[in-house]
Write a structure and sequence with these properties.
With 188 residues, the protein is mainly α. It folds into two domains: 2-121, Orthogonal Bundle (Rna Polymerase Sigma Factor, Chain: A), CATH 1.10.1740.10; 136-188. It is 80% helix and 0% strand. The chain has helices at 2-6, 12-20, 24-44, 49-68, 78-101, 104-135, 141-150, 155-162, 167-187. The longest helix is centred in the middle third of the chain and has 32 residues, at 104-135. The chain starts with a helix and ends with a helix.
């Protein structure tokens, strides 16, 4: 437990509990933990460090108020939540600036980044669903799928590892496992 507390980025649960318990340490670690990610986004999208500090401050205040008000429900990783809130705040500010200056071309680049981020968030959700499905798959299917797709073992290696008489039998088993995995994935 002490190793986790000494890390620069607290766990999501530590942050929420820390804020609920008025922990200044949890809040300070939250401030330092995810700022580089927000800074990079702002710098890449027509902003500077001061803009990033302002946006990050607003994001943390929103998070803090939601947690303290009992309105907070974490449906993604805290990092994703903070990034998303910061992104929305920054895009809103850029939209206001572009209305004042009528310079829409700069804003169009940022909109493309927002689409990329949304795709990334959707992929993260899909990966989490796949991980959950894989955890519920059971053996030997879980190991066969991991050995083939993650550990890059050949069908020959898998056949030998599990004692199949030939690679065709191992392929058949892998196919059956994939079918079960798909079924679990779409149930989750």
């Amino acid at each position: 437990m002490s190793k986790k507390l000494s890390s620069s980025v607290p766990t999501d649960r530590e942050v929420v509990l820390g804020i609920l318990n008025n922990s200044e340490e949890a809040l300070n670690r939250l401030y330092t933990g995810y700022f580089p990610m927000v800074l990079q986004f702002i710098l890449n999208n027509n902003g500077d460090e001061d803009d990033a500090k302002d946006v990050y401050q607003e994001s943390i205040i929103i998070l803090y108020n939601k947690i303290r008000g009992g309105e907070f429900e974490l449906t993604s990783k805290l990092k994703t939540y903070i990034y998303s809130v910061s992104r929305r705040i920054w895009l809103k500010k850029l939209a206001q600036q572009s209305k004042k200056t009528n310079n829409v071309s700069e804003f169009e680049d940022v909109v493309a980044v927002e689409v990329d981020v949304e795709l990334h968030e959707e992929k993260e959700i899909q990966f989490e669903k796949m991980d959950s499905a894989l955890q519920h798959l059971g053996e030997p299917c879980k190991t066969i799928i991991q050995d083939f797709y993650i550990n890059n073992l050949s069908m020959q290696d898998i056949s030998e590892k599990f004692g199949y008489t030939n690679t065709d039998n191992a392929k058949t088993q892998k196919y059956k496992c994939l079918q079960r995995l798909k079924k679990l994935f779409f149930q989750v």
